[in-house]
Amino acid sequence: MTPETNAWDGAGKRLYLQEVGTRDGFQMESVFIPTEDKIALIDQLSDAGLAKIEATAFVSPQAIPALRDAEIVLREIRRQPGVVYTCLVPNKRGAERAIEARADELNLVISTSETHNIANLRMTREQSFAALSEVITMARQAKVPVNVSLSCAFGCPMEGDVPADVVLGWAARFLEQGATGITLCDTTGMAYPSQVRALVADFRQRFPQAGLTLHFHNTRGMGLANVLASIAAGADRFDASLGGLGGCPYAPGASGNVCTEEIVHALQLMGYDTGCDLPLLLLAAARLPGLVGHDVPSQLLKAGQRLDLHAPPADFASWRDRALARDQPQTAVS
Amino acid sequence: MTPETNAWDGAGKRLYLQEVGTRDGFQMESVFIPTEDKIALIDQLSDAGLAKIEATAFVSPQAIPALRDAEIVLREIRRQPGVVYTCLVPNKRGAERAIEARADELNLVISTSETHNIANLRMTREQSFAALSEVITMARQAKVPVNVSLSCAFGCPMEGDVPADVVLGWAARFLEQGATGITLCDTTGMAYPSQVRALVADFRQRFPQAGLTLHFHNTRGMGLANVLASIAAGADRFDASLGGLGGCPYAPGASGNVCTEEIVHALQLMGYDTGCDLPLLLLAAARLPGLVGHDVPSQLLKAGQRLDLHAPPADFASWRDRALARDQPQTAVS
Lengths: 334, 334
What we know:
2 copies of one chain form a homodimer. The first copy, chain A, is α/β, with parallel strands linked by helices.
């Protein structure tokens, strides 16, 4: 067991937040977000202190028209020094495009569940592994780092639990191929804190040198608790989505990714250093309903920060005066 | 500092869940829930393993018409042995009615914030204390236990932070008067985990014999994390609301109380013994939208339990067959 961190007290510990709403979120939307709005939002997020932004995906424009402007987005955004602009790529063709467009990192996806991989990618896991290995070779030649996102690492909505050995086995194979980072993805919100803590501890013990990101969905209300359980096991890097954008096709109506501004709000209150500017994140999040054409899951956007105070009710002064008057000595004539 | 519990691993530890939706939730609704539906729901919850159910409030029927049937509800429900049926009472008149109706416990409310107490109850805190002290005396004579709920224990939406000394000071005065339990209420969802852990630890060190309940709202997405932080500091008793019913007038659109079925789902997965029958809770929660006439905040009700599996997409078999065929040796004629 990896030594336990007291996750309840941040004590200034640095955490790294990575925005996925601009890819994972926008990809789910039925409307096309205008390219200039995507660019403006990413530029705003670049100023907000995020460690990484998944700016877009280099996928077939026929398959995912929402992200058909990948090249333009990556070319036109203002690259903030210190921020990693990563892009999802599904195959060699996407990798060529992303490298050509100067992505800072390629993010590859495979599912740890055979059923989910076939349903999502139309390939067996071994076929995905073979194809992605070629992408990793290509990226290494171009000196572009590669992160591999392991879907369903905390359970598959069709198969059920995925054994930890299977998850860590796929991590090992990709790290051996030259991947520099692994993301354990809770694709449909099946993760729970004790499971998270155990898997993160196992991962860190087995791969102490590998970059590790945790990607949670708030589908069953456990998002923040899973983040804290990861921290307890030594993790410090988390995907999150502005406004909580990003759905889950297997749980209609339920929340998507953990919400960037909610996670930052909670972690900062607990004394963590997230590097993020929360008011800027809230300003950016406030633009989302207008961009996507619907309400977003973020509760913080509705409720405000905990110390955003409210005025007392209009009649407060008279209620108070009447209450105080009851404590005065009664006059003889009353 | 009270010794720290590892909250991440339940290890069979017994927790006690207390339902408040039938009072705190129903009171907020604009429709009148028919008395027979209230009774049927409470009877269903009595079978679901909850430790306590706040069945109703003995308040002025003019002020809160939603609960004007308090006497009938308390008389007609089936009293499950072992379940405590508690009732909110605001004053001596309410206490008389509740005692006459054989409430198992009286729950009294005062705010730790002067502004909130005046806004909510039209009295200063000292005036509330004097009035509630008389209720406690009356209840002790009738041998009915009294719990005192301290509102805004983790912050007031109008004043801001309420110092821990003030909160614990009010707890001390009520315990000296003979209250048997104290609930620390996060009335508008301002609590955060490190604060919760510290206040719960202080409370338990100062009042080791007092019954302690934590009452959280999920207004800013920290509900479950706050429950776990409480457990880390030794608490074992929590209010929650079926379906997440119960709003917060200062945060329109934001979630209400932490959701009973979500909390039970998460805590059971972590290995805690909640005493609750989750499928029964979900059945009861599924009736709520019909009763209150709108969707309820519960995400678990929409998404289902984590291992409620889904069938693969309709075309799955052909996708799999095509994927597998790619691995077959090519025939000479192909």
